[in-house]
Design a protein that fits this description.
This protein has 226 residues and is of the alpha/beta class. The chain contains eight helices and ten strands. The protein folds into two domains: 34 residues, no CATH class; 162 residues, Alpha-Beta Barrel (TIM Barrel). Strands 4, 5, 6, 7, 8, 9 and 10 form a seven-stranded parallel β-sheet that branches. Strand 4, helix 3 and strand 5 form a beta-alpha-beta unit. Helix 5 packs across helix 6. The longest helix is centred in the N-terminal third of the chain and has 19 residues. The two termini are 39 Å apart.
Amino acid sequence: MVNNINYPTSLFSSNLKFAGENQSGGVLSIAGCSAEKLVAEYGSPLFVIDQADFYLRTKAWRASLDNSFGTGQLYYAAKSFICVEVARWLKELKVGLDVCSGGELAVALAADFPASDIEFHGNNKSVDEIKMAITAGVGTIVIDSFDEIIRVASIAKDLNKVQKVYLRLTPGIDAHTHEFISTAHEDVKFGFSIASGAAEEALDLCTKSCIIKFSGYSLPYWVANI
């Protein structure tokens, strides 16, 4: 009977424990800390991260990357969750940070995170955000449109800087995921289409610029992992 089915606690991280499991899950603890005691002390709603688990997972990703490719930089997507303390953890772990807004960038800089290890993604960066990034010395700006090529080049010139960039490509691949999160097919607002020739045109513009330093491409991760 449905009433005898327990909550699927096996789907959660191993650092989450449930005492007296039932249909609602049971009494939750994270890293040995009772959720009931945490709420009693800090109130609810409450967002909790296990630092030891965060470090363990990050190091596992690093080891897997090194084993598979020999070298490379591991990046954490700030859009998953970012605060000053998490940015400090990433700095200690020597992990790069991928930001998508001026707010995320501001958090990273407030943590004294190395700007050179930051990638600035996003398909709707404002002039102020681009200026903020270049002024701070952000390592890489991932360019998403022809308008952005012009903006980055203009702002970098005004600041007397050469900015390293990647071009975000639209490979025209249907990843067979939910349509609301699919970003690799042709009819999408992100990146430069390979099939239409836009990617080649964008590359030509960047390589001819003395202000923009083209350094590579960016592809949707779910395409790269197919």
